[in-house]
Design brief:
Blueprint: E1 6-10, E2 15-26, E3 34-39, H1 40-47, H2 54-65
Antiparallel strand pairs: 1-2, 2-3
Helix pairs in contact: 1-2
Length: 66
């Protein structure tokens, strides 16, 4: 398993998943931000959007490479 994949809560699924990937970083003006995670199928769906961050595509490529 890649270092970018771990167990976590998939926001689109609304449930705990064994394999999730960070798909977004939420920045706030005060206090700590947070990472939004999604299961691999949802992460791939997000990565297909034209405005998806390149780092998400890179992370998924690393997962696919094994």
């Amino acid at each position: 398993m890649s270092g970018v994949v771990g167990a976590g809560y998939c926001l689109p699924c609304g449930q705990w998943c064994d394999r999730t990937v960070v798909v977004a970083l939420v920045h706030v003006n005060s206090g700590p931000g947070r990472a939004v995670e999604a299961c691999l199928p949802h992460a791939r769906e997000y990565a297909a959007y034209p405005l998806a961050p390149q780092w998400l595509r890179d992370d998924l490529a690393a997962v696919d490479a094994g």
